[in-house]
């Protein structure tokens, strides 16, 4: 009786802790169709948050390159590309880093914040966050 209870308790704790973090895999959905167009892994390195594209759902775009990028990512494959770099934890959000939009090749300042167990607010902006765009990533199940 004791062993199954402890196993169940341990499983519950692991799942609830995992769902309270920005780290893990997230689905980026097309704003018009709500279909998943890519899967992104958010990970921690040296106390900062980063993210890379680990899956592109459109089979015709698997080999897409960032031809609109102007930095070191120019003409590099989008699959595997780091799109979120160097965010630091600031209260209940992560900020101070950059996000790359591989569709237009532009790099923006950004912040991210959990807005539910399975929803991540991603805000990219120029200068001040008033001038920008927000997208929501959904935790991959």
From TrEMBL:
Record flagged with keyword Lyase: no
Gene3D superfamilies: 2.40.128.520
DUF2147 domain sequence ranges: 24-139
Keyword Metal-binding: no
Signal peptide (residue range): 1-19
UniProt entry keywords in alphabetical sequence: Signal
Matching Pfam families: DUF2147
PANTHER family assigned: BLL5882 PROTEIN, BLR1215 PROTEIN
Name of the protein described by the UniProt record: DUF2147 domain-containing protein
């Amino acid at each position: 009786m004791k062993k199954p209870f402890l196993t169940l308790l341990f499983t519950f704790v692991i799942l609830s802790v995992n769902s309270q973090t920005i780290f893990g895999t997230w689905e980026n959905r097309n704003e018009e169709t709500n279909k998943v167009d890519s899967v992104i892994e958010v990970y921690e390195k040296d106390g900062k948050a980063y993210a890379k594209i680990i899956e592109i759902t459109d089979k015709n775009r698997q080999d897409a390159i960032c031809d609109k990028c102007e930095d070191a990512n120019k003409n590099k494959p989008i699959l595997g590309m780091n799109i979120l770099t160097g965010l630091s934890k600031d209260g209940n959000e992560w900020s101070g880093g950059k996000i790359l939009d591989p569709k237009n090749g532009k790099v923006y300042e950004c912040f991210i914040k959990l807005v539910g167990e399975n929803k991540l607010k991603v805000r990219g902006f120029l200068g001040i966050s008033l001038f920008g765009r927000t997208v929501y990533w959904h935790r991959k199940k």
